[in-house]
User: Which sequence fits this backbone?
């Protein structure tokens, strides 16, 4: 009797065990599905936007999900690696080897270096990191941008700024951060982030080929490339590509414009590009 | 003995029934989780494509499904010609006019300039393109037949800038709710990318730009701006009027398309005007 009962009890227990295993598997699969969906949602939110230059040569990746961080998170960052400005509410990666020290200028000072007289928002802050020595480009009225002749307006402006041609202008691979107080921006007619984007591109001759501006987000990204033709570098006929990425972000009190300018030149270390990628990756707005 | 056997058999049956129940529960849970997951993914993807941009302080939000802007030649051929105008040679599809609307299909970009003293289309604000190859580029327009007539007077402003009435050929302008499509041959606009066009249109509306949307996985740009007329005479009374404009920038292999929607809110105007504009924008397609 006991012998007969045992197999039945074992069979019943086994059936129960199979049921339990199935329940556990079901629960785990359900959790897995939920997790995958959540990961998908998070991935969508923390979108890694890769914006390539028009020639497809360089692709800058920007993690739009990590542009903003809290004061506590900023305070926890290593100050040897990061420049943390709690007052202006931003974080920059400190200059890497081969780069200039982080320069802090006013907009007027920054523009004055290219002979441009600042007219509005002149006291606004500019932070800048430059790589090594500039490339001096010699241009004239026959120079082309993206294969097209330069407009008469722009040529006249160049003449006003630099005198009669040829014009010698230095170009750097660099990262520039412009910060505009919203009060100051409003006084010059900029009421929101799209208008800051438009103001920043109004006078810029460029071939913008990519824009990312997601609905209801507090950032936008622009990429432009200019191929300068009919120029001279070190006295020799040459052409040069300037790649330009702009990241626009905002918080309640200010707008931030991070500009990455990359000049392609022979003999330049690929590290320059990697460093620029680091600077844009590590830029943060403190909310 | 028999009783015991029966009890054992019975308990086995109970266990099997329980197991079946468990399996059903597991399957149900899994199917439910999959359905929930797929629905969530679908919703996220739809939201990512469905752009809905409202004008500030206005209830209306114009929606465009950027996923559906492009269709194939075969799909275009299947469209009902009573609802859609398929312009195969220029690579796009637009809606046929609803009651109360007029379709102009033989216009050029230059024609917009010729009527600028009677109606201001924001497209003509690309003023640097006057008397260039753009002049002959085709324009299609759906216009609501009843305009809002506005008279500029001393003290009138346009986007905050005082209007010098003495400089106007006619101080009375007719503003229309309308959708205008400029089809720009890429070969005639070698200096422009799609983004350049969107930025150019935005630059011309600076001071009134409310939204620019360009999703990372989309080849389209969508903008919304407001054009404020203050201290003007409209419908025989002194008033302020805000024109709302939306623009969708799209491209095919050969052409750029600037689709511009202008809405003039007016008292006593049927809400159908707004609904028609929404359906016109929803119907626009690029044939790829």
Assistant:
């Amino acid at each position: 009797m006991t012998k007969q009962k045992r197999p039945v009890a074992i069979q019943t227990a086994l059936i129960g065990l199979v049921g339990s295993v199935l329940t556990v598997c079901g629960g785990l699969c359900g959790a897995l599905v939920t997790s995958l969906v959540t990961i998908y949602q998070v991935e969508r939110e923390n979108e890694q936007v890769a914006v390539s230059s028009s020639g497809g040569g360089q692709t800058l990746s920007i993690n739009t999900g990590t542009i903003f961080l809290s004061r506590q998170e900023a305070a926890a960052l290593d100050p040897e690696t990061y420049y943390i400005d709690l007052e202006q509410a931003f974080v920059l990666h400190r200059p890497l080897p081969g780069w200039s020290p982080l320069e802090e200028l006013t907009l007027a000072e920054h523009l004055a270096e290219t002979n441009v007289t600042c007219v509005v928002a002149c006291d606004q802050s500019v932070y800048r990191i430059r790589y090594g020595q500039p490339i001096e480009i010699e241009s004239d009225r026959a120079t082309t941008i993206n294969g097209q002749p330069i407009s008469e307006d722009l040529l006249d402006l160049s003449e006003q700024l630099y005198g009669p041609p040829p014009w010698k202008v230095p170009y750097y691979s660099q990262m520039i951060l412009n910060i505009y107080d919203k009060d100051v921006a409003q006084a010059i007619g900029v009421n929101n982030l799209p208008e800051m984007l438009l103001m920043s591109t109004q006078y810029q001759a460029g071939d913008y080929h990519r824009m990312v501006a997601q609905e209801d987000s507090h950032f936008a990204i622009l990429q432009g490339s200019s191929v300068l033709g009919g120029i001279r570098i070190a006295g020799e006929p040459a052409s040069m590509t300037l790649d330009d990425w702009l990241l626009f972000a905002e918080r309640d009190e200010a707008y931030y414009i991070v500009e990455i300018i990359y000049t392609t030149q022979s003999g330049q270390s690929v590290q320059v590009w990697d460093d620029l990628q680091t600077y844009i990756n590590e830029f943060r707005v403190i909310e | 003995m028999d009783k015991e056997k029966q009890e054992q058999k019975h308990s086995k049956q109970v266990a099997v029934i329980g197991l079946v129940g468990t399996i059903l529960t597991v399957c149900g849970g899994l199917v439910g989780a999959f359905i929930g997951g797929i629905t969530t993914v679908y919703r996220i993807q739809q939201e990512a494509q469905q752009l809905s941009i409202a004008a500030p302080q206005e209830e209306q939000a114009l929606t465009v499904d950027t996923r559906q802007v492009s269709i194939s030649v075969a799909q275009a051929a299947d469209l009902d010609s009573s609802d859609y105008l398929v312009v195969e040679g220029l690579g796009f599809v637009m809606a046929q006019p609803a009651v109360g609307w007029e379709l102009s299909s033989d216009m050029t970009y230059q024609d917009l300039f010729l009527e600028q003293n009677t109606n201001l289309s924001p497209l003509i604000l690309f003023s640097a393109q006057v008397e260039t190859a753009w002049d002959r580029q085709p324009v299609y327009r759906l216009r609501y037949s009843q305009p809002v007539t506005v008279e500029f007077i001393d003290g009138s402003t346009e986007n905050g800038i005082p209007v010098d009435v003495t400089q106007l050929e006619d101080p009375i302008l007719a503003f229309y709710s309308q959708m205008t499509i400029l089809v720009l041959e890429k070969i005639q606009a070698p200096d422009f990318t799609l983004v350049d066009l969107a930025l150019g249109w935005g630059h011309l509306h600076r001071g009134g730009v409310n939204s620019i949307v360009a999703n990372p996985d989309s080849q389209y740009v969508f903008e919304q701006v407001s054009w404020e007329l203050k201290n003007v005479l409209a419908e025989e009374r002194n008033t302020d009027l805000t024109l709302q404009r939306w623009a969708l920038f799209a491209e095919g292999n050969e052409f750029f398309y600037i689709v511009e929607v202008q809405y003039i809110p007016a008292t006593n105007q049927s809400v159908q005007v707004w609904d028609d504009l929404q359906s016109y924008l929803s119907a626009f397609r690029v044939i790829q």
